[in-house]
Amino acid sequence: MMDFVEVRKRACYGNMAWKCLDHITTLNLNKQDKLLVVGPLYHVGAYDLPGVAVWMSGGALVVEREFDAQRASCGIGHHG
């Protein structure tokens, strides 16, 4: 019998997987997609929405330590 922690882990990973599949299909993500991530990677808004889905679909994450408007604009121009 699984303990409570194991059940919660499975539920969390399952939710993440289904959420990613939803993002991949709804947003038509593929290996040409790139996502600029400007924020802590542990934070749901910076990495998880929809960063993991982009990664799962073969796309790339462009990670910046902090937000700088000029650098972000240049990065978008460079990375597409």
User: Would you tell me the structural class of the helices and strands?
Assistant: alpha+beta
Main beta sheet strand tally, sense and closure: 2 strands, parallel
Q: Based on DSSP secondary structure assignment, what is the total number of beta strands?
A: 2
Adjacency order of strands in the biggest sheet: 1-2
Sketch the topology as an H/E string, one letter per element.
Answer: HEHHEH
Distance between the termini: 49 Å
Helix content: 55-70%
Molecular shape: flat
Mean pLDDT across every amino acid position: 81
Residue share in β-strands: 5-15%
Rg from Cα: 15 Å
Instruction: Flag low-confidence runs.
Output: none
Number of helices: 4
Describe this structure in words.
With 80 residues, the protein is of the alpha+beta class. Helices cover 56% and strands 12% of the residues. The protein has a two-stranded parallel sheet. The protein is flat and about 50 Å long. The model has no long low-confidence stretch (mean pLDDT 81).
